[in-house]
Amino acid sequence: MTDLLGLAAIVPASAGACCTVGAWRPGRAVDVVAAVVMVAAMVDGAFGPRVLPGVLWFVVLALLAVVVAAVHRVQSASGASGASGASGASGASGSDGRPGSAPAVRVASAHGRFGRLHAALGLLVMGALGVGMAHDPGMSGMAGVGVHGHGGAVAMTWQVVLGGLTVGYLLLTAHMVRDGIRRRTRALPVVETLAMGIAVAVMAAAMA
User: Fold this and answer.
1) Per-residue pLDDT averaged across 152-174, rounded?
2) Distances (CA, A) of 51 to 11, 44, 147
């Protein structure tokens, strides 16, 4: 059953990756690379023998999550500086052209605010779930040590942290999808977010 759910999770993850590729624009190359690598890690885990151990896939996905977050920070900083310059130039006349009137403030969508956070967190969660579902040699022995030895506390802590990350990711997914539907934004980002949330939920169910 676990293997079947692992295979089933590849379908929505692949759909989400296709949406990421379809929404590609300058500055989002790292998102496309991360999505493709994540699907590759899931396929490698579902069809043995593995090309890379699950732990190594987790390291790769974690590094990509850091890169995604760093790129988002740099792009946000450059965008904020550009926006502040534009608002400073138009601040004297205001949004309607009259002196003293306040400029209009547009609230960013949830996808605009949390899109890269959602992508980075998804990479971490998928990598961690992949480790839990791995059938690497020695995993059974490690599990036995975790139950009967000092590794029990470490294994329990790992499960708690993983559970918290998964729940947080799914809540963020629900918030972003709800906000996208309410604002009637473009369908592609909403489908991408929903597909990745479904993939994580299926992977988590396989771990249960």
Assistant:
1) 88
2) 20, 6, 28
DSSP secondary structure string for all residues of the chain: -HHHHHHHHHHHHHHHHHHHHHT--TT-HHHHHHHHHHHHHHHHHHSSSPSS-HHHHHHHHHHHHHHHHHHHHHHHHHHHHHHHHHHHHHTTT-TTSSTTPPPP-PPPPHHHHHHHHHHHHHHHHHHHHHHHT---TTHHHHHHHHHHSTHHHHHHHHHHHHHHHHHHHHHHHHHHHHHHHHHT--HHHHHHHHHHHHHHHHHHHHH-
Q: Give the sign of the dihedral formed by CA 60, CA 169, CA 107, CA 189.
A: positive
**pLDDT above 90: residue 36:** yes
Q: Give the distance from CA 58 to its chain's centroid.
A: 13
Residue range 88-117, pLDDT digits in tens: 544 545 545 455 554 545 556 666 677 788
Give which of 198, 150, 184, 193 is closest to 23, Cα–Cα.
193
Q: Which amino acid is at 60?
A: V
